[in-house]
Amino acid sequence: MAAVPPVCRFGWRAPGFALPGTDGRRYRFDDVAGPKGTLVMFICNHCPYVLAVLDRIIRDARDLQALGIGVAAISANDAGTYPQDGFAQMKAMAATRGFPFPYLYDESQGVARAYGAACTPDFFGFDAAGGLQYRGRLDASRRDAGPADLRRDLFEAMKQVAQTGRGPAEQFPSMGCSIKWKAA
């Protein structure tokens, strides 16, 4: 079932976190923050929306890091119900795909709840002070990757944040698989 997150709440403060990464380190928000801003994205291993654009996510992460934007990805899905989203499988994907960013595991789902993450992929772009400036899509792709020449919405928005400290006024929400929450 596809899910669509709400639009950007400009200036909303990034919740802190301390999560294990697939590289064996533990990361806080401050550890991944860049001098020009920070991108926190919620992804997972199994979602067809993520898999369709994973190469573009990796490309845009590298390009944004070159602009001074820190990048981290978090997986918060219930690995009991979706074992392919477990930590061992996350480690394998990060290594196989050569993630240029930390891939963090939110086993308790507390960070995903604090952020209000709704789907995978879900992108949160913060300015250098940790205020939200972008909550939108990667590009106009949906369950399948769109044409290679699609406008790079996430990249352009975060490039603007790096240059001006402000995100674009017009933003289009991401779309993807709903976060797989644990039973209460």
Detailed description of the structure:
There is one protein chain. The chain is α+β, with helices and mostly antiparallel strands. Helix content is 28%, strand content 20%. The radius of gyration is 15 Å and the shape is globular.
Write the layout of secondary structure elements.
Elements: E1 2-3, E2 18-20, E3 26-28, H1 29-32, E4 37-42, H2 48-66, E5 69-75, H3 87-97, E6 103-105, H4 110-115, E7 119-120, E8 122-126, E9 132-134, H5 153-164, E10 176-178
Parallel strand pairs: 4-5, 5-6
Antiparallel strand pairs: 1-10, 2-3, 4-8, 7-10, 8-9
Q: Strands across the major sheet, in which order?
A: 6-5-4-8-9
Total count of helical runs of at least 4 residues = 5
Q: What's the mean pLDDT score? A: 95
Strand content: 15-25%
String of helices and strands = EEEHEHEHEHEEEHE
Mind describing the biggest β-sheet?
A: 5 strands, mixed
Task: Detail the poorly predicted runs.
Answer: none
Instruction: Give the helix level as a range of percent.
Output: 25-40%
Give the radius of gyration.
15 Å
The end-to-end distance, rounded to whole angstroms, is: 20 Å
